[in-house]
Write a structure and sequence with these properties.
- It contains eight helices and seven strands, in the order H-H-E-E-E-E-H-H-E-E-H-H-E-H-H.
- About 3% of the residues have low confidence.
- It has a single domain, classed as 2-Layer Sandwich (BirA Bifunctional Protein, domain 2), CATH 3.30.930.
- The termini are far apart.
- With 228 residues, it is α+β, with helices and mostly antiparallel strands.
- Strand 2 and strand 3 form a beta hairpin.
- The protein has a seven-stranded antiparallel beta sheet with strand order 1-2-3-4-7-5-6.
């Protein structure tokens, strides 16, 4: 299953899908699904070549529906207990992240606070060695329309993360935690990086191997957190 690179149409699909005629909509949707499957397969192949291990990616195409604006592939990192690996394809970027906690998990959020408080050295070392990595705190409210209204509460640049002071992040989590669970909403953090659309198109068929390198680094971070 070869991957020759994403196309401009793959990204434009999310911007134009509500205006496309049914035949064109179906054609472009299937083309995008095909390219994403090929990309994920090559990521898995590169991962196995590099590590000798298997990377299981569960693809989620619900984002191709009219109300959504992204598709994803997920891997449950069982050894970490609370982290999930996620590849997100948006209208203007491809994101490679680990997210914590997995789903709506109160205990997971308390463990996350513990990591940010007591494992600063591990996190700081990772961010200093991976200058393209950022951290985002996301808060989402579940709507009856099933279209989650998620937004960034905080976004920390790599330079900010390298200082190793995460007190403001922990404070923000504590502020959001009571209303979050009273209102049946959720919050989590994402640690990772993004390939903006122009970069993803320029990298072309080499993108899976690049993404694989980032994934290995993120999984190594999960392992280091679990060990310390």
């Amino acid at each position: 299953m070869d991957f020759m690179g994403f196309t401009g149409d793959d990204f434009e699909f999310f911007k134009r899908k509500n205006d496309l005629a049914k035949a064109e909509y179906n054609d472009k949707r299937e083309q995008m699904k095909k390219h994403f499957r090929e990309f994920c397969y090559q990521v898995q192949k590169s991962y196995h070549t590099s590590t000798g291990k298997v990377l299981t990616l569960e693809k989620d195409f619900k984002g191709l529906n009219k109300m959504k604006s992204s598709i994803s592939a997920n891997c449950d990192i069982e050894s970490s207990g609370i982290f999930n690996l996620k590849i997100d394809f948006y209208r203007d970027n491809i994101g490679i992240y680990i997210e914590c906690p997995k789903g709506r998990d109160y205990d997971g959020i308390k463990k996350l606070e513990d990591i940010l408080t007591n494992k600063k050295d591990t996190l700081t070392g990772f961010f200093k060695g991976n200058r393209n990595m950022i951290l985002m705190l996301l808060y989402s409210e579940f709507k009856k329309s099933n279209n989650n209204n998620g937004h960034e509460e905080m976004k920390l640049s790599n330079n900010e993360l390298c200082f190793g002071n995460y007190d403001m992040l922990v404070k923000k989590i504590e502020e959001l935690l009571p209303p979050c669970y009273n209102k049946k909403s959720t919050l989590n953090i994402k640690i990772g990086m993004q390939y903006l659309k122009p970069d993803a198109l320029k990298i072309g068929k080499a993108l899976p191997s690049r993404a694989c390198s980032e994934i290995i680094g993120l999984l190594d971070l999960c392992g280091a957190i679990a060990e310390n």
